[in-house]
């Protein structure tokens, strides 16, 4: 009785605050356990997420094959081959170009390095000996920080295994996507099943819109910057264009890294004028992307504040390196979209919020 009186003596606002704080602590602890377990099997988690991203990207290919009366496995195989040809073809094209141009480019790069060294010595209060010592110190630090060959081989093995798992999952997600989703829905209580179905479809629609939109934006960036590099005469134009394409999948940070690489190569190979021209081209393309392509292609559905994007990319990088940085933003966009639908009590179970339901998850499978 005394303890009950003591509990009643606590102000209601304080009791409510304590209850909310306890719930938050439980949620944070549960998320911490999930993140810990996910990091333990990071390769598998990244393979599953990569398969989902690729499925959202090439689902239209499988859907078009199904419209042509192709069996489910043929449609899935068409989507899988599209990914393999696109990635493998790009790597082969860049490798062939670098191999063919390397003897010629090596000489121009050597001359460019000497010219850059002269410009640095003439511009900054530093002499040749100090610059050589700084470069040698940097090279020594890079050699000391280089990964152990055994660790590198182990990492390569894990990456290869994750790629194979992702391709395996991609095939079956394209082939049996609908049945997989229906199996998940059967695990949900019947009274919540319709709402979860709407939320899942909304999340899938957001993922498909993001992936296909970012691919178009990345392609536009790569073409624009690649053409500028060719016109200016910068070597390795195609590899730098491919780097721009890949870096576009890491919002904000990727553009800075790819642009810096292009400007550095231009400075080393052609001098300060070429570097400034490339910098101007990179800034022009990035401004066109931010103010024209992003709103036009991505729309307002996936609009996230830059602070949210930067924090998501930083968290993904800390958790899983470059791969984590790539998947962080689409993951946040999907979770945000699903949370909005689940929190909306006025959602129509038949149509869902916003535009008509995206049939991608249903047509991906049989």
Describe this protein with a few key phrases.
single chain; 366 residues; mainly alpha; 12 helices; disordered C terminus
Describe this structure in words.
This protein is mostly helical and 366 residues long. The protein contains twelve helices and no strands. It has helices spanning 2-8, 12-40, 42-67, 72-123, 128-145, 149-186, 190-232, 237-247, 253-270, 272-298, 306-343, 360-364. Helix 4 packs across helix 6, helix 7 packs antiparallel against helix 10 and helix 8 runs antiparallel to helix 9. Mean pLDDT is 78; it is low at 347-366.
Task: Provide a brief overview of the structure.
This protein is mostly helical and 366 residues long. The chain has helices at residues 2-8, 12-40, 42-67, 72-123, 128-145, 149-186, 190-232, 237-247, 253-270, 272-298, 306-343, 360-364.
Nearest-angstrom radius of gyration? 26 Å
- The unreliable regions are 347-366
Question: So what's the overall shape?
Answer: globular
Report the structural category.
Answer: mainly alpha
Order of helices and strands: HHHHHHHHHHHH
The number of distinct β-strands equals 0
Strand content: under 5%
Largest sheet: number of strands, sense, barrel closure = none
* Proportion in helices: over 70%
What's the SSE blueprint?
Elements: H1 2-8, H2 12-40, H3 42-67, H4 72-123, H5 128-145, H6 149-186, H7 190-232, H8 237-247, H9 253-270, H10 272-298, H11 306-343, H12 360-364
